[in-house]
Amino acid sequence: KEIDADAVFRKLSSLRSAPKDEEEDDQY
Fold it and tell me: What distance, in Å, lies between the first and last C-alpha atoms of the chain?
């Protein structure tokens, strides 16, 4: 089964403790 890009991206975002709002990249 192919890896879900969305699932992997969410994991990476979770590790960064990034907010669900991806539009707020300026906060970084």
Answer: 34
Tell me if the pTM is above 0.70: no
Three-state SS string over 1-28 comes to: CCCCHHHHHHHHHHHCCCCCCCCCHHHC
Distances (CA, A) of 11 to 1, 4, 21: 18, 11, 15
pLDDT digits (tens, 9 = 90+) for 1-28: 787 898 888 888 888 765 555 565 565 5
